[in-house]
Design brief:
- This protein has a domain of about 140 residues: Rossmann fold, CATH 3.40.50.
- It has 9 helices and 12 strands.
- The chain has a 10-stranded mixed β-sheet. It has a two-stranded antiparallel sheet with strand order 1-8.
- Strand 6, helix 5 and strand 7 form a beta-alpha-beta unit.
- The relative contact order is 0.13.
Length: about 325
């Protein structure tokens, strides 16, 4: 089974990074967009529909509070999703709005029988205060999505320690856009996919090696079921090298059931982007220490954890 987009399409950007990427995706594939955030600054893009999760008067709300207040906007979100068949969710799970709202929006889409494709951008390893919440949010995001693509900046940084966080974000966001640009003309494996790439390297074979190294930071080789190999700037790469790359990656993923496909894209620079379908555990499952407990054995799985702001008028008792 594979995920195929059908029009009409709505891309939903959650938080700052999600809103920026949603605007780019809207321009790339010619769809509508919706921005949802607790920060009014994220809603400044005039061409998009917007929903503000109003956390006033709290100046620095927790992700749990943002999620709790978003329950009051469920009907507004559902109304925005209603006219569309395919919902693309872009959530930066390292940010408060993305991690808080990703599971809520995907759950609404699932309840409305929409076709849901989600992108989950994971935090860096040094962002220790965000790791647990991002892991729990990713688990719920995957459960409510037909197809989830995980973008792990930290794996790119592990493979290239000389890069800055901003450079990592730029590289992986560009890779994400390369995948998005082909969505209307290709299908994706259902369930969980890992997006991996490399920094700008003139040699595409070296770029392939670095992309595989990034992938192995996240999943064991036996978990890999299929791989889509995007060669950006592949129109300038000799056919013999392209054939050698496919043979190389097929040999590395030696499981007979592993399928390797090639997509050649135009570009000024040559680079490899891997979109790999996996089954089983990833390192993100360990972000939540209680993640090993099956959902059917978890009493409160149906509703995500929230914090609710309640103003109680209590008389002072002397």
């Amino acid at each position: 089974m594979e995920f195929q987009m059908q029009e009409p399409i709505l891309v939903v950007g959650l938080g700052g990074a999600g809103s920026r990427l949603a605007s780019s995706i809207k321009e790339e594939i010619g769809c509508d967009s919706l921005i949802i955030s607790h920060d009014p600054k994220d809603l400044s893009r005039e061409s998009s529909s917007k929903i503000l999760i109003n956390t006033n008067p709290i100046l620095n709300p927790s992700a749990y509070l943002i999620r709790g207040i978003s329950f009051g906007a469920r009907s507004s979100i559902a109304e925005k999703l209603e006219p569309y068949f395919t919902i693309i969710i872009v959530a930066n799970l390292a940010g408060k709005s993305g991690a808080a709202l990703g599971p809520i929006v995907s759950q609404i889409g699932k309840e409305m029988n929409k076709s849901v494709l989600s992108f989950g951008i994971m935090p860096f390893k040094f962002e220790k205060d965000r790791i647990f919440f991002s892991g729990v949010s990713l688990k719920r995001l995957k459960a409510s999505s037909d197809c989830t693509i995980i973008v792990d900046n930290d794996a790119l940084l592990d493979s290239n320690p000389d890069l800055t966080p901003d450079t990592c974000n730029t590289i992986t966001n560009t890779a994400l856009m390369h995948v998005v640009s082909t969505l209307k003309n290709s299908s994706l494996p259902l369930k969980t996919n890992i997006l991996s790439t490399s920094k700008d390297i003139p040699d595409v074979e070296t770029s392939l090696r670095d992309s595989i190294k990034m992938l192995y930071e996240d999943v064991p080789p036996q978990s890999i079921k299929s791989t889509l190999l995007y060669v950006v700037g592949g129109n300038k790469v000799p056919i013999g090298i392209l054939n050698s790359m496919v043979s190389t990656i097929s040999g590395i993923f030696s499981n007979d059931s592993t399928r390797v496909s090639l997509s050649v894209a135009n570009g000024e620079k040559s680079k490899v982007v891997l979109l790999t379908s996996i089954e089983g555990e990833t390192r993100f499952d360990k972000y939540d220490p209680l993640g090993i407990i099956p959902s059917e054995n978890t009493l409160d799985w149906n509703e995500p954890d929230v914090s609710v702001k309640i103003d109680l008028e209590l008389e002072q008792i002397e």
